[in-house]
Amino acid sequence: MENNQLEKRYGLFTAICMVVGIVIGSGVFFKAQDILNYTGGNMLLGILAWVIGGVVMVICALNFANLATKYSKVNGIVDYSEAIVGEKYAYITGWFISTIYFPAMTSVLAWVSARYTLVLFDAGADVTSGLCMSLGAFYLCLAYAVNILAPRLAGKLEVGATIIKLIPLAIMVIVGTIVGLVNGNTIDALVQSTHSDGGNFSSVFAGIAAAAFAYEGWIIATSINAELKNPKRNLPIALVAGTLLIMVIYITYFIGLTGGASVEVLQSQGATTAFKNLFGNIGGTVLNVFIVVSCLGTLNGLMLASTRTLYSVAVRGHGPSPKTFSQVDPNTNMPTNSGVLALICCAAWYFYFYASNLTTPIFGIFSFDSSELPIITTYAIYIPIFVMFIVKEGKKNILKNTVMPILGIIASLFMIFVAVYAHGIKPFQEAAAKGEFAFPVLFYLIVFAVIMGIGLAFYKKKEK
Fold it and tell me: What are the C-alpha distances in Å from 118 to residues 30, 133, 244?
């Protein structure tokens, strides 16, 4: 008899580590610099961007924690879409995360992992070189091989990487904050913010969009609910505990950086300089090794989710060749065919991300930030889920089933506005001042529409 069921192999600790481990990766290290640049070096506005981004994450996580207590089938967000909105919406959601969201995020982490590896050996390394691209491609294939051939090992690696990646953050939080308070750098940075004219409240929107990448990944933990022991209990705990912990770590880490470098230095050189200033070249190098491990741990978690997403669509009888992509290998108990297509999608987005970040982008005006825009799209996908949940379940519990989803809708709409401003209005204004044209979010939507159109064609074919 053909097997298409996944084994219950992960416990609560693995689920929490997946939430924390996937979210805490490269974003907190390199987006901190971006946020300072967006806010003109204003630390208070930077902290505000982290706080708002964290609140949005926690609100949405609380809603999905509530959903996780009620529904569990194959893949969290796809399950919730099917149970609350309908079968076709579940397919649309599954197709999006299979072909755009997970592959785009995974590809970015492969490149970032390669980038930090090269910088570890040479601070002036060219992170747009062929060597960087080749190393990133190797990391991508390595993560795929580990998850497909040894899924239990992949889970253990996620736990281990999560513990390791918390080390540099915890050290910077404690040491950086103490040193910053003693030498006065932290107080100076905060006081300077009150007199700074380098940023304004509108600049926080771009900072929030950057923070969205650093905060993203918690929803990915729902992709293993079919393999989670007692998912209706463990998944909600993991979502709530994990996201609250992440928010606290990010904000305190951001403040701690000022103990190792001035705001101006952080803007130009990033967090690596703060580590080296506090712990010397050797200490800084050791902590940079932890950062590389952190990035690779996040890459592992993203690939873990990517290999399962098309399976969640195919097991429902939809998409291209459902019978093929719903098969589970009897030896590894993994959806191998789904994993192969996931690797192909990751490779395609990897090439796109790399080509779009060259000095002269290969795709020209069709170049957009694939590290942020797919994330914002997920917030648009959440809205119908929240709305229909209120319609169907709202009267049963006003606080959990009505008030919280309404807050989720508001938070999601706010993130969409932030994306339009950061990747539409702002670049349009900057390009217009130079007599040029740029509207990245528009070109992303065109690519999004084409990919989703292909997916819908497969769905219609299956219906016939």
Answer: 15, 11, 32
